[in-house]
Amino acid sequence: MRIYMDPIRIQNKPIYLEVHSIRFSSRLGSRMHAMRLLIVFALSSLLVAADGGAGVGFFPPTCERIECPEFDLIAEENGYEIRRYNSAEWMSTSPIEDISLVNATRTGFLQLFDYIQGKNEYGVTIEMTGPVITQVSPSDGPFCASSFVVSFYIPKKNQADPPPAEGLHPQKWGEKFVAVRQFGGFVSDATIGEQAAALFSSLKGSNWDSAVDLSSVYTVAQYNSPFEFTGRVNEVWLLLDIVASAM
User: Fold this and answer.
1) What is the DSSP letter of 115?
2) Nearest Cα to Cα of residue 237 among 196, 203, 201
């Protein structure tokens, strides 16, 4: 696995982080790499200022390097877009109860990272894909745990027979319509609720209003490695109750 990173600037001083090419010869090695990712993930969560690079109709550059699920762009509206995903298969965690989206995503990411590094019943490694998505079922109060399910998009070559793994289960999407709001920077617990609320608000009174799922469940999609400090693209997804014949 080869990761490249440009220098970052803190208080206008360039800081160079050296990231080596790593080949995993054991599960311990992959676990150590996962911990390195999480250390950077934890540090980067402090840098939550948006850096731009995201907007309606912006194609995540990550998807030019790794495989992402294919979709059709149905409409571009003010502050959001409507997509149709024709088919996608995901490997998902069991529900994770936590008060923090960031913590729950970190927990799920560790499970999924082990999975793609060979901790599955077939003992095979799987290519990294994007995005990693976290389905959020909000709690009833600010101090109550919400429920989170973290999922990894399974590459096409593995979708016919995805390797089983303890604590994970496959989810196959048929045709799904999704309202999407994009934003930059790092995802944080302090701002993700605002992003989701902004998407709900944008859809009110629109042609898509009646199709919005009223359960308040939404999904956060993250496309970038924690090592990428600029040009980050994140999305909030809302599933819409639409059938193709109605389009």
Assistant:
1) H
2) 196
Amino acid at 212: V
Q: Provide the 3-class DSSP secondary structure of residue 3.
A: coil
DSSP string, 156-218: HHHHTSPPP-TTEEEEEE-SEEEEEEEE-S---HHHHHHHHHHHHHHHTTSTTGGGB-TT--E
Question: Is residue 36 situated within a structural domain?
Answer: no
Residue 29: its H or E element: helix 27-44
Mean pLDDT by 10 residues, the chain (247 residues): 44 42 45 56 46 59 93 94 94 98 97 98 98 94 87 97 98 95 95 95 95 90 91 95 66
Give Rg (Cα) of the chain: 18
- How many residues comprise the chain? 247
> Which position has the token pair 């077939």?
122
| Greatest C-alpha distance within the chain | 56
- Residue 19 in any domain: the answer is no
Nearest in space to 208 (alpha carbons), one of 238, 234, 236: 238
| Whole-structure pTM value | 0.77
Q: Which domain holds residue 182?
A: 61-246
Residue 183: inside a domain, yes or no? yes
Nearest one of 186, 218, 184, 185 to 199, comparing CA atoms: 218
Residue type, 126: I
| Alpha-carbon torsion angle 186, 189, 193, 196, nearest 10 | 40
- 33: three-class secondary structure by DSSP: helix
Dist CA 102 CA 162 (whole Å): 27
Count of structural domains within the chain: 1
Residue 209 lies in a domain: yes
CATH of residue 134 = 3.20.80.10
What is the amino acid identity at position 159?
A: Q
Alpha carbon 217 to its chain's center: 15
